[in-house]
Write a structure and sequence with these properties.
289 residues; D-amino Acid Aminotransferase, Chain A, domain 1; D-amino Acid Aminotransferase, Chain A, domain 2; 2 domains; seven-stranded antiparallel beta sheet; 8 helices; 16 strands; globular; binds 3-[O-phosphonopyridoxyl]--amino-benzoic acid
């Protein structure tokens, strides 16, 4: 396995950063999780745009242009001869002295690209749907730590994940600071009722998969809306599913003990899964290995 580290390809054992890296010391950095399907990097430009927006907001100055960053991702896939891959692109503010002030960093962000095989959820989960719960930990409030930033600071989600695990679930709904449904620990959430596909407008990451699903729905004459959503609306929805780069589209059939719809993946969810697979099979940045 060859890891991209600041413009060089190095072996896994040599792919190291300093213990003084502020990404490690303070979670001061950003990341993206990207996938390639059969030699096509799905939504590469959108992922890179989001990364640069996060870095802009965090005032991390990257030494590469977005185009160069995209080329680095593709090079990493080629170097590792991977046609179907999960790519983890990590940027940290870099090495610095102790103290959380970013000015203590030496101005050289670390750029890491890891390309590996993806571990998929078991297929039964997609056929039967999953059960999730709501956890007590609310999603970070946007004014404090905007969930739009895909930063290395994932403790909010990790605490929620621990609560989900303690309750016996692998994924969980996180509410926003007002008590509305925000998203799950690593996925966005959608509900369907009366032909309308709805997803929270606020308090969540602007997921790339979320945006793809909204666009696919609109193209296929399915009405969509982004708005405030309550738990009651999730309980009483006809269908529910989660979206994310890793999970793709995964049906949800039970929330906090309540069956959603008839308790099996619904027709619109199944249709969107089909449309999504068609999109990943033909759209993307092509590369040859
Ligand atoms: N919400 C949160 C909090 C996320 O972290 C999503 C929604 C879905 O966004 P995308 O852009 O992927 O549709 C995410 C994404 C991992 C892993 O290793 C996590 C994500 C993506 C890929 C891998 O756990 N989270």
């Amino acid at each position: 396995m060859k890891i991209y580290l600041n413009g060089q390809f190095v072996d896994r054992e040599k792919a190291t950063v300093s213990v003084f890296d502020h990404g490690l010391l303070y979670g001061d950095g950003a990341f993206e999780g990207i996938r390639s399907y059969n030699g096509l990097v799905f939504m590469l430009e959108e992922h890179i745009t989001r990364l640069y927006e996060t870095c802009h907001s965090m005032m991390i100055m990257l030494p590469l242009t977005p185009k160069q960053m995209m080329a680095a991702v593709v090079d990493t896939l080629k170097k590792n001869k991977l046609k179907d891959a999960y790519i983890r692109l990590v940027v940290t503010r870099g090495e610095g002295d102790l103290g959380l002030d970013p000015k203590k960093c030496y101005g050289k962000p670390n750029i890491i690209i890891i390309a590996g095989k993806i571990t998929l959820y078991p297929p039964e989960l997609y056929e039967k749907g999953m059960a999730i719960c709501t956890v007590p930990t609310p999603r970070n409030m946007p004014e404090a730590m905007n969930p739009r930033l895909k930063s290395l600071n994932y403790l909010n989600n990790i605490l929620a994940k621990i609560e989900a695990g303690n309750a016996g679930f692998s994924e969980a709904i996180m509410l926003d600071h007002m008590g509305f449904v925000a998203e799950c620990t690593g996925d966005n959430i959608f509900i369907i009722k009366n032909g309308m596909l709805s997803t929270p407008s606020q308090g969540c990451l602007k997921g790339i998969t979320r945006d793809v699903v909204l666009a696919l729905a609109q193209k296929n004459k399915i009405k969509t809306e982004e708005r405030f959503i309550t738990r009651h609306e999730v309980f009483t929805a006809e269908e529910c599913f989660l979206t994310g780069t890793a999970a793709e589209i995964i049906p949800v059939v039970k929330v906090d003990g309540r069956l959603v719809g008839s308790g099996v993946p619904g027709p619109m969810t199944k249709k969107l899964i089909k449309l999504f697979h068609a999109a990943t099979a033909k759209l993307g940045t092509a590369y040859k290995i």
